[in-house]
Amino acid sequence: MRFNYQTAGRLASVLLAVFASLALFTPSSYAKTVNVYSARQEALIKPMLDKFSEETGIHVNLITGGGDALLTRLRTEGRNSPADVLLTVDAGRLYRAKEAGVLQAVQSEYLEQAIPAHLRDSEGYWFGLSVRARVIAYASDRVKAEQLSTYEALAEPQWRKRLCVRSSNNIYNQSMVASMLSTQGKEATEHWLKGLLANFARPPQGGDRDQIKAVAAGQCDLALVNSYYYGAMLELGSPEEQAAAQKVALFFPNQDDRGTHINISGAGVTKAAKHVAEATALIEFLARPEAQQWYAETNYEYPASKDIEASSLLKSWGDFKADSVDVTELGRLNPQAVMAMDRAKWK
Amino acid sequence: MEINTTTTSTQVLHRGRGSFSWRALMLLTAAIIAIPVLIIVASLLQNYSPVWEHLLDTVLRDYVLNSLLLMLGVGSGTLVLGVSAAWLTAMCEFPGRRVFNWALLLPMAMPAYIIAYTYTGMLDFSGPIQSALRSHFDWGFGDYYFPEIRSLGGAICMLSLVLYPYVYLLVRVAFSEQSTAVLEASRSLGKGPWKTLFLVALPMARPAIAAGVSLALMEALADFGTVDYFGVSTFTTGIFRTWYGLGELRAAAQLAAFLLLFVFILFVLEQYSRRRMRFHHNSVQQKPTRIMLKGWRAGCAFLLALTIVTAGFLLPALQLASWASERLASTDVSGFMTLVTSSFTLAAIASTCCLVLALILAYGKRLHPGPLERQAARVSSMGYAVPGTVIAVGVLIPFAWMDNRVDALMREHFNISTGLVLSGTLAALVFAYVVRFLSVSLQTVDSGLARIRPSIDESARSLGKGPLQVLQHIHLPMLRGSVATALLLVFVDVLKELPTTLILRPFNFNTLAVRAYELASDERLADAALPALAIVLIGLLPVTLMTRTSSATAAIHPRAKQLNKDHHE
């Protein structure tokens, strides 16, 4: 029955054809393209990418996803990875990407001039593009700004059961603890964590907006949050969110010593990049004044570029001194930070 | 099983070089489908990094403990909800029973992570209910007790509310097929309806209960969205933390392999309970007389059923609708339509692929009913019980490896680079879906085929038709119902699927589930409502389909169908 051989073969080849055509589905018919793996959500990056395409004629292909999922994908894809640019929302992942050997160094006079040294890799493997500060949100009716001073002081007994903060799964908590490790050392940090956990008003849960809402609703008096969530709640939130944010004020800790802890979002060119020039152009574009301003105004982040001022809302919170620790250090210490938080039983 | 006993003559017809290719095709398919799961299991053989010491010292205990508690909670929750719903609709008569008969299935359309978002919005400390309580009674924080929704208990409630239909479906069938004689004997011996339930009906339905609960537990173990959102440390969140926080992919894969161990135990349990089921079969088919509930009893039954449906479906759906309408004005309609189109395209492709492969496997099993073939079919069903993230990693590794090897060979011999042919394309994503959901379509097609008499095959074959022609001209037209069910079930499952899509999708490709998740994880619940609502509404399709078919169980869940089939063996 040769017929069966043929038909089975035919069936298999139909399946193969289906898969092959799926494989070809990826659009790549543009003259100039750049492929981006972005840990920043689509809504928070797409408008700028569209603008870039409009100005340069370079088409941008985008995949968003978790930073580590994208990094794993880059690594397994190896030298054949289609990605040209890796965009992340924290320094830790950029550090990990460099360590894993999936990025390449880029020489760009513009970037070296525009981005301060502590916000980029010294060898040019990646560049910070925006800055987010981890600040204290406090109930303005129950807490006075004078009572607040440093992150360290949040572990003091006067704040017992008065602090809200999210899970230690969150990268911004991890990098905050990493910065503590880098300045205070392991022992002091573990001691601090113990005091901090005793001050939690409830088990860690929800996101940063939830912490602000909990402060407004009176469940706790203080919360550790990223500054941009507060900005977004104030100006873009639902009426309830706006009302909650208005009951809360921000405090920038450690102004008298090292400065407030910051993290960055940033980007690097991948080692496998086939469009290095376009990729570099995209990163430079994101560091230019228009893009930096856009970050500041629509995402309520602080610009990474030295020449750009923060948005008016951000300026109304006052100037602050940012911790100038090299953000690379935060990436290096991230695993230790997670382990310290595990030991302290910070969920 | 009918086929087993009557296919001897068919087998004679099939022995030949031709049918060997079906068999080869089938075994090859099964082998390929099994790769991702095997890759994860193989990680157990690799080195254990020092991070294991840390995990053992600190968090592993919590992962295991919380996962066990979650299983215990969801197990009891689905048991109580599912069995009481089944008892009421199968054995009692009360106002609204006909409607509840299918309405109790509605929560199936609600993905667990979405029901979690809606209840958090409603019950959170700063949500409308608690705020209203506080302003009405002039309470502050700490003045009153209110259960915390974001907790292990909350996760158990959420998962129980959407997973109980598995138990409900299976137990309802078991109840309605129980011999009236036995139940009446119990009642005539002076046992009331309650005693009859606990002493006779429940013990007889035990295998169905065990099967339903173990299905619900598999889904609960695979859940990531809910436990992550509620901040509960379980195996799935632990896998992510080890991978993302500690940057240890291998240790994460090893954790995943240990999770598979849990799953495997459930798998065995379910298989075992299925086997037991056959012994409980009763050949006399009589419609049991329903217990007429009157007065307050009828009222209680009505209220109980209504509460379950309201909590599991109506309330969260209304919350989603109200959020969605709030944000409707600011919705980017064309963007939303693109999302719908790409979700639909993807789901359609995946369900078609699943169907084709399911036909190959199921038909292969029919042509060659041997132990090897049965195992092959079983192996290709493993993916159903594996969390999506784990499958994604299991797919990523072999695809990239193969692509890179092909590329290296081509560079070496022909000096051309083929690049990544399959990784990072829809093909990789569709393959992952097939691995995860093949079991769903396989079991549907399987039981459909089982209902076609082998004598039909024999007649056709003796008239000189080849196996493929028989499949094409005779089986497929007769299988139309099963084919539609298989397509629809996988379609909806793919639409709801989140973690695999997130990791494996190609450039510029978003789905409704991805969008809902991105917005919700950015704490914009109201914006996430529209895509979430779309997923729920489409998820209703199989439920409505089910209400139209007479054998309700069969249509809604293939495993249930399988059970049904076993039942009649």
Automatic annotation (TrEMBL), chain A:
GO molecular function: metal ion binding
Gene Ontology CC annotations of this record: outer membrane-bounded periplasmic space
Signal peptide residues on this chain, from the entry's feature table: 1-31
InterPro entries xrefs: Ferric-bd, SBP
Residues that coordinate or bind Fe cation: 228-229
Keyword Chloroplast annotated: no
Name of the protein described by the UniProt record: Fe(3+) ABC transporter substrate-binding protein
Family: Belongs to the bacterial solute-binding protein 1 family.
UniProt keyword Nucleotidyltransferase present: no
Keywords, ordered alphabetically: Iron, Metal-binding, Signal
Lineage: Bacteria, Pseudomonadati, Pseudomonadota, Gammaproteobacteria, Cellvibrionales
